[in-house]
Amino acid sequence: VVAMADFSMGPDFQYILRILNTNVEGRRNIMYGLTAVKGIGRRFSNLLLKRAGVDTRKRAGELTKKETELVLRVLENPAAFGIEDWFLNRRKDFDTNKSMQVYSNTLSTALRNDLERMKKMRLHRGVRHFWKLKVRGQHTCTTGRG
Q1: By CB neighbour count within 10 A (0-12 exposed, 13-18 middle, 19+ buried), where does 34 fall?
Q2: Which of 43, 47, 61, 85 could make an S-S bridge to 13, C-beta 3.0–4.6 Å?
């Protein structure tokens, strides 16, 4: 819980910040606030803010429009800002053969497309998903009966 006296709220403070179709609480630290967006974790959020040149100690509601746009620009094209391929969450995409950071709605779409592709190719993993069984080699004799 954040005490209200811990930070100053200026006239342009936003209590709810809208980033990538996600509501980010303005009173949270921006580094942890960005983790509300699906596909962005703590480490990637930290690196994202450093590459954008935004102070990681700021609150999310204190961000200016220019800083928000810069963060989104880094997120859209991380390679141009020096973020390595191994740090991204989708390396060597099946269709484009490029490494990228997938987030928000595109993450759900990519996951669904991958599962459909595996089912269509009749891969073992795709078939297990289709049958709603355990996929990663877990025991199924006494567990997973729900």
Answers
A1: buried
A2: 61
Residues with Cβ within 8 Å of residue 139, at least 6 apart in sequence: none
What is the rounded distance in angstroms from the CA atom of residue 62 to the CA atom of residue 59? 5
Query: 63: buried, middle or exposed (CB in 10 Å: 19+, 13-18, 0-12)?
Result: buried
The residue assigned the tokens 């609480």 is 25
108 and 97 Cβ atoms separated by less than 8 Å: no
What is the model's pTM? 0.81
pLDDT averaged per 10 residues, the chain (length 146)? 61 89 93 94 96 94 93 93 92 89 92 94 95 92 85
Element (H, E) at 3: none
- Cα-based distances in Å from 56 to 16, 96, 134: 18, 33, 40
Q: Where are the beta strands (DSSP E) in 1-146?
A: 16-19, 22-25
CA-wise closest residue to 75 among 102, 94, 57 = 102
